[in-house]
Amino acid sequence: MLRNLVRLHSRVGHALSPPIVCPRSQALKLPLPLLSVNSKYYSIITERKKFYEDVSISHGEAGGMFEINLDQRKLKTPGGKLFTAPNKALAIAVANEWDTQKDTVKFYSMHMTTLCNTALDNPTFRSKDQMITAALKYLETDTICYRVEEPPSLVELQNNEWDPVLNWIEDRYNVVVGSSTNILGPEIPQATMDTFRQHLGSYNFWSLTGLEYVITQLKSVVLAFALIDKHITVEQAVLLSRLEEEFQIGHWGNVEWAHDVDLYELRARTAAGALFVHFSSESSTVKRKLMQD
Amino acid sequence: MASLSSPLRLCRGILREIRAIKGPEYKQSLAYNYVLDQFRKNQITGERYCRAQEEALHASHSYLCLLTSTRQHMALYDIYHGKGQRDTEEMAGIVGLRLPTQPGGKGWEK
Fold first, then answer.
1. Which of B39, B60, B77, B87 to mutate to test the interface with A (most CBs of A within 10 A)?
2. Taking CB atoms and an 8 Å limit, are B80 and A256 in contact across chains?
3. SS3 letters for A81-119?
4. In a domain, B18, yes or no
């Protein structure tokens, strides 16, 4: 299924290559796809035989970063750097992904690891500003803002489901984001763009990587913000993003090998992105209160 | 619009997923201990509306979604995804032919 393969190799889903320290002695007679030896980061290996037994995490000294150990060997990013996670929660999520694999390591199912690799390596050398600009570009053709004029049941569905989210974001950020049935899409005023730009600028590089990923998956800035601000759940965000598709499924029927596969993959990726942003931008403190009676 | 499940359901759901992944010794896994720990820590709060608790709830809901949807996606992938092509030599062998050999190497090979 070429479509699936193409989606795997999207820029942000920066495909993994195995850690550099590992032995390459296993006979690759499995029906593995082609190995491209030319590109530095971009070897098209989608699966590998599982070469480790235990996964554990260790707390590094410098800067409190966490590392992942596969059977005593440290995990490295495709770019060759040591894999470090800024906090324990993220490290455990990544370790769990590696732990989930049985017999073959399926890199395309390890979304948290992929996101961490992208944030660590930054293979396309993007700056924060470039990422913010790219993210905001999606606003001009935001899914939520693009309405149809017919059939009337779809129009009604769009109004019922999408309008509340639009109202929420307009209230929350004090901006104007209209919806339109025009082919060119809504007119987003400059003030709105500035507000969003400023808001996005407050996120650190890692969170921004995750946030841009979520926007790209959902094809909507409004939905991504609603998800990251914990206004809606992942399942709701995915449903709203695929609203028309769900409408058509309701009308014409569901095709498991296309619709369901897409749905679960989108959910997995969006959930990973949301979690990644949450872990990258949180700080937790425990305040103890004395018991008073 | 946020209709989150109760913490108990989320906790059970996540632990069930971990059990599905790991098998019998799931209680020794990293994720199990960490998840239980987090749920316990976030339980006690003096506030009536605790922002951190809401955030933790949303995060655990997202994690549950991640685990379930990865599992379901992989299940469908195993059923429906193409298995890839065979090697040309193998394919020729199936119909009883062999690939031609050119002792001097093909023109574009080094």
1. B77
2. yes
3. CECEECCHHHHHHHHHHHHHCECEEEHHHCHHHHHHHHH
4. yes
